[in-house]
Specification:
heterodimer; A: 233 residues; mainly beta; Hypothetical Protein Tm1070, Chain: A; 2 domains; five-stranded antiparallel sheet; globular; B: 255 residues; nine-stranded antiparallel sheet; four-stranded antiparallel sheet; 20 strands; 52% strand
């Protein structure tokens, strides 16, 4: 989602099935006075990207500069080459700081489909998070939990389905990211031989004062090894 | 703030239905105080209908299908509809500002979810001067995966004009006729009527005019689209991304 802040946090991943690409667009306020009024420094914008792996280790850092009239595009896969695997894939968090001001966007791209993915949704003691989920055959639902702080955090994840609300707790290391497969964590609701689809809500909370980011990523298996993706934009 | 409001849009067609999810949440309490949802639905072809649904509780996520709340939508199938959603509580001194709203488009193939920004947040982030307007930017894109467009929701009671432009190579700002679905008074300044939704369609030549970027998945053509944003809280802007073959919406970004 487009925001006012200059620093944004996005989940990034590289797997044989999908990759992350980042897109940047200069903030419109730059053009408020007209193109002719821009100084030479204002005719470009710079983005600083730090990539942290799933355990919170800084594994890469890159700065890119784009002309102000261009959409910037950055493929993440080369930046994740040294990333360790967690949960079967190379993934982590990109911390993006844009020179005043530009807006980043993230896109998950598979073989023949792609979706834009919003910034990690904020979660802290003041702000709980909720995400609608549908568990159905052929779909994998992965909850992403990322800890922006320098100390470990615990996140309570409650799945609310009808009158039942099973709960689990996930510990995320300082600066790190963890994935939770909803089908594995709540197998009784993922038994799709009983019902065609289970609809519910995830309610997430933490007692830590630290800032946490959450996102739900769903992959629906299509024909011929293709995939369809869903996230919250 | 005892109420929180969003201006967003839904989709009602033969193959796509809209589900409205909401999570009433407060800063200082988690007690299950009562919360009601007031929903207004409108479009160019669908007269405004409003209703209030009681029974919500603070801290309890909930949701409903739009066509269950307003059955005439199922007959009219108007396509895009504007939505105004308000959560409110009679309980005094409850600040509902941490509440969330998520709109989901459900079809047999895929679901698309997005989270609109609350009107109060947007109106604060726009300029303090009621007359001045802020320029916002959005990437127009075309590649093997699909293409993007701009959607404007006008839930206010007066027309909204939006000047569209795109910078190019440090030269003069280009403008062009870009609108479909709304009234257009000036070239590059489409006017969206009260209670309507308009999708800006970008002519291919505008994007084709730029040299593409070479990426691992193929060529990407893009332009920076600038649009004047209204300071009216009942007006919202969204970026749509459609896949290239069936032109289905695959992502929505609140701007």
């Amino acid at each position: 989602m487009f925001g006012e802040s200059l620093t944004s946090h996005f989940w990034v991943a590289s797997t044989p099935l999908f990759q992350t690409a980042l897109f940047f667009v200069p903030d419109g306020t730059r053009f408020q006075a007209g193109m002719e009024e821009l100084s030479s420094e204002q005719k470009s914008y710079t983005t600083d990207i730090k990539i942290f792996d799933a355990d919170g280790e800084l594994i890469n850092e890159v700065a890119t500069t784009y002309p102000i009239d261009r959409v910037g595009i950055l493929e993440i896969e080369p930046l994740l080459e040294v990333c360790k695997y967690e949960g079967g894939m190379k993934h982590g968090r990109a911390v993006i700081t844009c020179s005043a001001p530009a807006q980043p966007m993230s896109r998950i791209q598979g073989r023949d489909s792609a979706v834009f993915m919003g910034e990690l949704l904020p979660l802290n003691t003041q702000q709980r998070a909720f995400i609608p989920v549908t568990l159905s055959e052929g779909k994998s639902s992965i909850l992403i939990l990322s800890n922006f702080s320098a100390s470990p955090s615990s996140i309570k994840c409650k799945l609310i389905v009808g009158k039942r609300s099973p709960e689990t707790q996930v510990d995320v290391p300082a600066g790190g990211t963890r994935m939770l497969s909803l089908e594995s964590e709540f197998p009784e609701y993922a038994d799709l031989t009983v019902s065609r689809a289970v609809q519910g809500y995830l309610r997430l909370s933490t007692r830590s004062d630290d800032q946490i980011g959450v996102q739900l990523f769903e992959r629906l298996e299509g024909a011929k090894e293709s995939s369809l993706f869903t996230t919250i934009g | 703030m005892q109420q929180v409001r969003w201006t967003a849009f839904g989709l009602s067609s033969a193959i796509t239905k809209t589900v409205l999810h909401f999570f009433p949440s407060a800063v200082s309490t988690s007690a299950p105080y009562p919360v009601s949802v007031t929903l207004s639905v409108f479009s160019n072809e669908f007269p405004r209908k409003s209703l209030t649904i009681e029974g919500g509780r603070l801290g309890q996520p909930d949701g409903f299908r739009l066509e269950e709340a307003i059955p005439s939508l199922a007959e009219a199938l108007p396509g895009f509809v504007g939505l105004q959603v308000e959560l409110s509580t009679p309980q005094p001194r409850i600040d509902l500002s941490p509440s969330c709203c998520i709109i989901e488009f459900v079809s047999t193939a895929q679901s698309v979810k997005f989270s609109p920004q609350p009107s109060s947040v947007r109106s604060k982030s726009v300029q303090p001067d009621g007359e001045a307007r802020r320029l916002s930017a959005f990437p127009l894109m075309q590649d093997a995966y699909g293409f993007s467009s701009l959607l404007i929701v006008n839930g206010s009671d007066r027309p909204v004009g939006t000047r569209l432009s795109s910078p190019i190579s440090m030269g003069p700002i280009e403008t062009g006729p870009l609108i479909e679905g709304g009234k257009m008074d000036t070239i590059g300044s489409p006017e969206v009527q009260p209670g309507s939704v308009a999708e800006v369609q970008v002519p291919d030549q505008l994007i084709q005019a730029r040299s593409p970027d070479e990426c691992s998945w193929g060529l990407v053509r893009s332009r920076v689209l600038l649009f004047e944003r209204s300071d009216q809280p009942a007006v919202s802007f969204f970026g749509l991304f459609r896949e290239s073959v069936a032109k289905r919406i695959v992502s929505v970004v609140a701007l």
